[in-house]
């Protein structure tokens, strides 16, 4: 969740590092810092709060050197403050480190190091790495050798960057936390996300787990933590700096909501043809008897929809698990199982651990990811890229609708490979989804007017059935994430098993009531809420007058086949959450305590 930037080369190093950190702000953080290395020593500055606090520190203009490392911290061990902010240094202030991840055995290591005379100044686990490297750096020894010896002692995960006084290099290593090297002419850049590299270069090298890199301004060398040299291919970033700009929108989240027609068109491009679905997957679905879908957060809601779709269209039983639970459960696998993981970033720690568990059991793995070149994309046996473009807002919007769209395509492909006749009409209707979303966005002002009436409420209940139950969960999550209003999503039929006790004239209830097999049932649920004076907002494709008579507010969406309703129905819920948060004056793109990519447990 934290952000790392490193730079070695000529120029205004502090400005380069700060600019890199700004490109990583969307990941979430509570403090920031940087350390510049020169012949004279290490020059350190750290601040609690936003990057502009760091940038405006009076010492920054006087800092210069060969290069440096910088970090945005999201607190795990130790409260957010200047002392716990990264970079951390060793006792002699000759070594500085930035670290993403968790050092699980840091208590034991700290006790040993303190017994040897090392003095710790922070509450973090990360500081342990600086003292370990100092311990293993004898007079005349190389920095990289000391880092390798330190890593042998560390249990846990790390994305680590290290500098040493007077040395024109950065040593970096990873295990479970992403690090990417930007290859430039006359300099080298390091980051935990490609967003911080795009301004410098399109050519990158992705470090794999248990690899260590030594960066100088001329080149980089890579070896395993066992010391074996590694030849890496340089890959090219497809995204551009222009894609991570707001383009006139007030927030990235609003921009990404309005980008969804284009994003979905990119997900669909070239994948539906006269002969059916075209997905390049090296997977024999005819032999698959069970699919396990696993994900976290918004991606888990997409997985729930995927269960409905795959079972209905592809006729294969599907289980859905939170990756954080799946990784620790005693699972029973079979030779005919497929583990499919869903992640926007492709770096989610729990989801990566789920892949490792599946691969260890010998079952096939498939990834549905947005970020090209991400760890999940490299680790799975087969995958589907979303091509949604960079998603900067912490609250996921376009990635969710593209994930559901990809699951529709996957379901249709499975249907064909299982020997069933795919629904050609559904494939044709899927191609129309971008236009249908545009129709909803064209009426965004109506959603904004409704949102204005509910911005002071403390609780909201979201109800849906069938494929729209996960949409209710996602709508509630969006409202919680960015407006800090308590919201819960439920299957509408479960209302009578508890939540109905909450309903009175102060309780807004959002219904997703699209036409389908359960439409009459959910209409009955709306009547039950009305009888208890609940305030009703209905998302519907129905033109029945009864809906308007019974609802306080109606948001109309275009009619779609039931399998595609979630993609369209979630759009007004995204807008509703956004407008409420914005009207409350909240930082929509950087909600408190949240990070875009959860790369630690």
Q: How would you sum up this structure, described in words?
A:
Strand 5 (88-89) and strand 6 (95-100) form a beta hairpin. The strands form 5 sheets. An 8-stranded antiparallel β-sheet has the order 3-2-4-1-10-9-11-14. The model has no long low-confidence stretch (mean pLDDT 90). It folds into 3 domains: 3-237, Glutamine Phosphoribosylpyrophosphate, subunit 1, domain 1 (4-Layer Sandwich), CATH 3.60.20; 245-431, 3-Layer(aba) Sandwich (Rossmann fold); 441-587, Rossmann fold (3-Layer(aba) Sandwich), CATH 3.40.50.10490. The chain is an alpha/beta fold and 601 residues long. The chain is built from 19 helices and 26 strands. Helix 7 (260-268) runs parallel beside helix 12. 56% of the residues are buried.
């Amino acid at each position: 969740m934290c952000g790392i930037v490193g730079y070695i080369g000529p120029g205004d190093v502090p400005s380069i590092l700060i600019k890199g950190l700004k490109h990583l702000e969307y990941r979430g953080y509570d403090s920031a810092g940087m350390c510049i290395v020169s012949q004279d020593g290490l020059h350190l500055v750290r601040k609690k709060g936003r990057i502009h606090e760091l940038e405006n520190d009076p010492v920054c203009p006087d800092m210069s050197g060969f290069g440096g490392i910088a970090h945005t911290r999201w607190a795990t061990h130790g409260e957010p403050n200047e002392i716990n902010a990264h970079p951390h240094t060793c006792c002699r202030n000759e070594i500085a480190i930035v670290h993403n991840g968790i050092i699980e055995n840091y208590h034991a290591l700290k006790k040993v190091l303190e017994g040897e005379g090392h003095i710790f100044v922070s509450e973090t686990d990360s500081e342990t790495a600086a003292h370990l490297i100092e311990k293993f750096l004898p007079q005349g020894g190389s920095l990289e050798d000391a880092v390798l010896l330190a890593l042998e002692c560390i249990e846990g995960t790390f994305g680590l960057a290290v500098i040493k006084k007077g040395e024109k290099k950065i040593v970096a290593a990873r295990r479970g936390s992403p690090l990417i090297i930007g290859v430039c002419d006359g300099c080298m850049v390091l980051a935990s996300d490609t967003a911080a590299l795009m301004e410098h270069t399109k050519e990158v090298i992705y470090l794999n787990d248990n690899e260590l890199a030594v960066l100088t301004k001329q080149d980089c060398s890579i070896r395993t933590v066992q010391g074996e040299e590694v030849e890496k291919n340089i890959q090219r970033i497809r995204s551009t700096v222009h894609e991570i700009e707001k383009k006139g929108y007030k927030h990235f989240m609003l921009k990404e909501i309005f980008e969804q027609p284009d994003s979905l068109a990119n997900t669909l491009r070239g994948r539906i043809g006269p002969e059916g679905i075209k997905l390049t997957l090296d997977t024999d679905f005819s032999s698959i008897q069970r699919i396990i879908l696993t994900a976290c957060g918004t991606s888990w809601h997409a997985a729930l929809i995927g269960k409905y779709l795959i079972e209905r269209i592809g006729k294969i039983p599907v289980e859905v698990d939170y990756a954080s639970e799946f990784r620790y459960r005693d699972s029973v696998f079979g030779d005919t199982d497929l583990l499919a993981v869903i992640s926007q970033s492709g770096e989610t720690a729990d989801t990566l651990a789920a892949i490792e568990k599946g691969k260890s059991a010998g079952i096939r793995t498939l990834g549905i990811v947005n970020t090209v070149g991400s760890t999940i994309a490299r680790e799975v046996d087969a995958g589907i890229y979303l091509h949604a473009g960079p998603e900067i807002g912490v609250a996921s919007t376009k990635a969710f609708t593209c994930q559901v769209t990809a699951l529709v395509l996957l379901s249709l492909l499975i249907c064909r490979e299982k020997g069933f006749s795919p629904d050609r009409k559904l494939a044709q209707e899927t191609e129309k989804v971008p236009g249908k979303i545009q129709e909803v966005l064209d009426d965004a002002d109506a959603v904004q007017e409704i949102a204005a009436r509910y911005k002071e409420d403390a609780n909201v209940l979201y109800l849906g059935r069938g494929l729209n139950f996960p949409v209710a969960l996602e709508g509630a999550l969006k409202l919680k994430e960015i407006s800090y209003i308590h919201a819960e999503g439920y299957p509408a039929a479960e209302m009578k098993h508890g939540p109905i006790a909450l309903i009175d004239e102060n309780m807004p209830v959002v219904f997703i009531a699209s036409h389908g097999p359960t439409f009459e049932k959910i209409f009955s649920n709306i009547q039950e809420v009305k009888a208890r004076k609940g305030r009703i907002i209905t998302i519907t494709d129905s033109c029945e007058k009864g809906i308007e008579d019974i609802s306080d507010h109606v948001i109309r969406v275009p009619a779609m086949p039931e399998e595609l309703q979630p993609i369209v129905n979630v759009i007004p819920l995204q807008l509703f959450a956004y407008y409420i948060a914005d009207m409350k004056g909240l930082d929509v793109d950087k909600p408190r305590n949240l990070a875009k990519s959860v790369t630690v447990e």
